[in-house]
Design a protein that fits this description.
356 residues, 9% strand, TIM Barrel, globular
């Protein structure tokens, strides 16, 4: 049985319950900007880290100990889902990031994808969650996550990252039935994966739609949002709403009201919209997370503090607010700047109340 959480700010913020201050964490917080991570990474390749539960757990907990964040997020990668469905994933240093040498281009490739049994096929993630919970020992919550179906689709059809995802978008426009078949399979897989993570001990889960912004508003609603809403419904139903859900659709500011209407507890924001405007639009329905430009972490401590305080002033109160960046922390950020961000976030609302 897991110990009672000593710091449940993130869970209360996600549920829009009263909190004394907003919690703070970073997307990609377990990673290359930390020397302690690089020391481990020097001994193991990336996928070995991901697939070795004791190593993944150690990396997961590092930012809690070293940076002071209010939550840990399990160390993994969104592309373990398509790999578990039968695709061959390669991650090689200095060669453009992860890739699939045999991308999904044919109907038969879609048809032959294995249905995901997350408990079995991604058991190493579940074991890493359990080990991370043991290491955390109730200090802070643990976040589980998955890529959204559209983002996974984009990588699977393209084979790698891309500026325009030409092949992925071409399938949407010229083979709509095939596209929806693949998205339905991914929706089922992601829902099963998130449910398994919650059963393994994740206190809250996030759905990342990194490539939402490359779709038109209409295409986003058809090829992304429909499936995210289905996942949110399934996860909440199967877990009896045990864990809050965060949905982050980068670049989809045109559809924030509809994202909130999926039933998610938290809407993640990139840095290209005024959080005060979003609060006025949907802030009574969901909690809000993010909104700070990730490159702010290259600035001085004074500038970082000023920008953090600006977000707090726009929100006016910590209820329903989670400090984060509008995307992942960059690998060459100085850890001291990350600590400055965390310190400023923890003090922001107190500074406002004091008129600082």
């Amino acid at each position: 049985m897991n110990p009672r959480l000593q710091n449940d700010l993130l869970l209360r913020a996600a549920r829009r319950q009263p909190i004394e201050r907003s919690p703070v964490w970073f997307m990609r917080q377990a990673g290359r900007y930390l020397p302690e991570y690089r020391a481990i990474r020097a001994r193991y390749d990336f996928l070995t880290l991901v697939k070795t539960p004791e190593l993944a757990a150690e990396v997961t907990v590092q930012p809690v100990d070293l940076v002071g964040v209010d939550a840990a997020i399990i160390f993994s990668d969104i592309l373990v889902v398509p790999e578990a469905m039968g695709m061959s994933l390669k991650v090689e240093e200095g060669k453009g990031g992860p890739r699939f040498d045999e991308p999904i281009r044919l109907y038969t490739s879609i048809r032959d994808l294995k249905p995901l049994d997350a408990e079995k096929d991604l058991g190493y993630v579940m074991e890493a969650i359990k080990r991370s919970k043991q290491l955390l020992n109730g200090r802070v919550p643990l976040i589980g996550f998955s890529g959204a179906p559209w983002t996974l689709f984009a990588y699977m059809v393209e084979g790698h990252g891309s500026k325009d995802f030409r092949h992925a978008k071409e399938m949407l426009f010229t083979r709509r039935e095939d596209a929806h078949l693949l998205l339905r399979k991914l929706s089922d897989a992601v829902a099963d994966y998130l449910i398994a993570q919650i059963h393994a001990g994740a206190d809250i889960v996030q759905i990342f739609d990194t490539w939402a912004g490359i779709l038109t508003p209409e295409d986003f609603r058809e090829f992304s949002l429909e499936y995210i809403a289905d996942i949110v419904r399934k996860v909440k139903q199967e877990t009896k709403n045990r864990a809050p859900i965060i949905v982050f659709c980068k670049g989809a500011n045109h559809s924030l009201g509809e994202i909130a209407a999926t039933g998610t507890d938290v809407v993640g924001l990139d840095w290209t919209i005024d959080i005060a405007e979003v609060k006025a639009l949907i802030g009574d329905d969901v909690a809000l997370q993010g909104n700070l430009d990730p490159t702010i972490l290259y600035a001085s401590e004074e500038v970082i503090t000023s920008r953090v305080n600006d977000i707090a002033e726009r929100m006016l109160e910590p209820t329903g607010h989670i400090f984060n960046l509008g995307h992942g922390i960059s690998p060459d950020v100085d850890p001291d700047n990350a600590r400055a961000f965390v310190k400023a976030a923890k003090e922001a609302y107190a500074a406002i109340r004091l008129g600082a």
